[in-house]
Write a structure and sequence with these properties.
- By secondary structure, the chain is an alpha/beta fold.
- The chain has a single domain, classed as Rossmann fold (3-Layer(aba) Sandwich).
- Helix content is 33%, strand content 17%.
- The chain is built from eight helices and ten strands.
- It has a seven-stranded parallel β-sheet with strand order 1-10-9-6-2-3-5, with helices on one face. Strands 4-8-7 form a three-stranded antiparallel β-sheet, covered by helices on one side.
- The chain is globular and about 50 Å long.
- The chain binds fructose -6-phosphate.
- Fructose -6-phosphate (F6R) binds next to α2.
Length: 252
């Protein structure tokens, strides 16, 4: 793991965008794994600014998102399809049909999950996976206790995740009970992983990530088994870590 310390959310977002842009410069047909949520919106904003100023193009790139709520229409304002369209895709120049998300409306969910995994393989796998981290250590919607072997699958969201995501809905009851997510095995297959964390709310989980052995109880700890993980975290998210704990996460 390599840990890059950022001053604040803006700085984290700028550094993350620069990281992604460097990867595209090296491989214009990059296959990106993408996330939703509050952590990554600043990164998308920066990528959009850099696209507008001609610093980056997504013409030859493609993307696969981590997750989507079950039973949610693509047009629903709370769907991740809508989030991605509004916050990123419609502002940049991906070719039509190159942005993939799990289908929360699939009739046969099992089959749709296998198809998503098959499609990722057909594209040659993900080159760079962008990740946020849940306060309980989830990555994608892989909640504590998820087997590391899982590929794309349907999950039941924990009360803490529903509570954390309730800010986007009118009330916590409106947050769907289930979601489709790439599994831990799908995430680990990515050639490189970029994990972002910002704010005091992520300080405890980053501390645990440094301290704990790899355990299914804290899904993000599995990243310690991957050979190419970069973490960009801001000062607040790192505020509870000692120098030694930062070293464990790859700070020099
Ligand atoms: C979103 C996702 C989640 C989030 C995590 C952090 O696609 O997969 O794992 O990355 O819940 O969410 P925020 O960034 O809102 O704190």
């Amino acid at each position: 793991m390599r840990l890059i310390e950022a001053a604040d959310y803006q700085d984290m977002s700028r550094k993350a965008a620069a990281f992604i842009e460097a990867a595209i410069a090296e491989k214009p047909d990059l296959i990106l794994g993408l996330a939703t949520g509050g952590t990554v919106t600043g990164t998308y904003e920066q990528l959009i600014r850099d696209f507008r100023s001609g610093k980056v193009t997504f013409q030859r790139a493609a993307s696969f998102n981590l997750d989507e709520y079950e039973g949610m229409q693509k047009e629903d304002r709370n769907s991740y399809h809508y989030y991605m369209e509004e916050n990123f895709f419609k502002h940049v120049d991906f070719q039509k049909g190159k942005n993939h998300l799990p289908d929360g409306m699939a009739q046969d969910m099992e089959e749709a999950c296998r198809e998503y995994d098959r499609l990722m393989e057909e594209y040659g796998g993900i080159d760079l996976q962008l990740l946020g981290i849940g306060e309980n250590g989830h990555i994608g919607f892989n909640e504590p206790g998820t087997a590391f072997e899982t590929k794309t699958h349907l999950v039941r969201l924990t009360p803490s995740t529903k509570a954390a995501n309730a800010r986007y809905f009118n009330s916590a009851e409106e947050v769907p009970d289930r979601a489709v997510t790439m599994g831990i095995a799908s995430i680990l297959k990515s050639r490189q992983i970029l994990l972002l964390a910002s704010g005091m709310k992520k300080a405890d989980i980053l501390q645990k990530l440094a301290d704990e052995e790899v355990t299914e109880d804290i899904p993000a700890t599995v990243l310690k088994q991957h050979s190419n993980v970069v973490i960009i975290a801001d000062k607040d998210a790192l505020s509870k870590l000692t120098k030694e704990q930062k070293k464990v996460l790859g700070h020099d």
